[in-house]
Amino acid sequence: GNGTVRFLRTNLTIALMDPVTGGTPPLASLAGVTLAKDGTLAFDAAKFTDSFNDDPVGTQRLFTSMGTDTVNPGALERLAKVVDDATKFGTGSLVTLEQSQRDASARVKTQMEEMNRRIDLYEAGLKSRYAILQSSLQNLQNQSSWLSTQIASMG
After folding, report:
1. Residue 25 near residue 59 (C-beta atoms within 8 A)
2. Does residue 22 come out as left (phi exceeding 0), alpha (psi in the -120 to 50 range) or beta?
3. What stretches of the chain adopt beta strand conformation (E)?
4. In Å, what is the CA distance from 73 to each residue of 26, 36, 61, 129?
5. Which residues share a beta bridge with 33?
6. By CB neighbour count within 10 A (0-12 exposed, 13-18 middle, 19+ buried), where does 59 fall?
7. Residue 117 and residue 124 in contact, taking contact as beta carbons nearer than 8 Å
């Protein structure tokens, strides 16, 4: 896999699954949000409802600080920051990865075009040599036929 994608996946996992200061519960998994091994999110509504009923403010704080705590953001704010950083115009990791993939594709296309041009030149050279050889062979066959006629007339 691609290093940028692995890095992004790790950061998304950390953003969502690491403990949140001030959150009750402190982990999204304890409030019904889990991350499967394949990277998909699962939501357990009953677990979330229990957490919210036990401590509505703490559960809300787990997911968002409502902009009041920039040092200890909620899980969704951390997640949003990772996504923003990855998709930021011109500098985001996914944006730069996409551009580098496009650049690599363009280089490969240019190389293929150059190779095709060289193959076409090589093919033209071979056809020219073949035509010359065919002409030479025809001349040799004509000479052979003339010599055979000359030898036959001597005898």
Report:
1. yes
2. left
3. 33-35, 41-43
4. 12, 23, 9, 75
5. 43
6. buried
7. no
Neighbours of 1 (CB within 10 A): 6
Residue 5 to residues 12, 54, 94, Cα–Cα distance (Å)? 10, 37, 8
Read off the amino acid at residue 3: G
User: Taking the C-alpha atoms of 68, 72, 75 and 77 in order, what is their torsion angle to the nearest 10 degrees?
Assistant: 50
Across 55-78, average pLDDT = 89
Report pLDDT digits (tens) over 77-100: 999 999 999 999 888 888 889 999
Residue 128 identity (one-letter amino acid): S
Residue type, 77: E
Give 43's strand partners: 33
Model confidence, pTM: 0.63
Cα separation, 76 vs 63, whole angstroms: 5
Alpha-carbon span 21 to 71, nearest angstrom: 9
Distance in Å from the first CA to the final CA of the chain: 83
